[in-house]
Amino acid sequence: MPSIVIEAMQPADWPQVRAIYLEGIAAGQATFEQSAPDWDAWDHKHLPACRLVARRQASNQTAPSQPVQRQTEQIVGWAALTPYSARAVYAGVAEVSVYIAAAHRGAGVGRRLLDALVTASELAGLWTLQAGIFPENMASVRLHERSGFRIVGRRERIGQLHGVWRDVLLLERRSQTVGV
Fold this sequence. Notes:
Elements: E1 3-8, H1 14-27, H2 39-45, E2 51-59, E3 71-83, E4 93-100, H3 109-123, E5 128-133, H4 138-146, E6 150-161, E7 164-174
Parallel strand pairs: 4-5
Antiparallel strand pairs: 1-2, 2-3, 3-4, 5-7, 6-7
């Protein structure tokens, strides 16, 4: 029976992480981005302490009498934080990214990743997390709300995606332990 393990993202994970990111981009409901960067650009942009992957682990065992040869690990989702600003006053504020492979959406992977990301953010001293979500992406809005985020505003016609103006809901989560 496969299990999901949440752990720190490693550079070697990038090909699978990038594939999930590209899948989210192609769906047109996750981001204004049109392409995924290379590892170096992505690595430079995201906080090192707050990068997680959800791995689906299953053994390669062929028969009950044979020993488990090794684990196969498929990344089925990832989450990471981007600093909100380079200004010192905002050092404890970051923007959330959570992407789940289409085949694994609705199975609780996003909730586990986001909750683990919240914990990692607080350990890193962050006091506010924010997320910008297209209003049509209600699954993502509900996911964030279940993890303590609240809608604080709507940015109307903030950008175009494929020539269509899009609104973005701004969600925020304040830590109950950091910056209080």
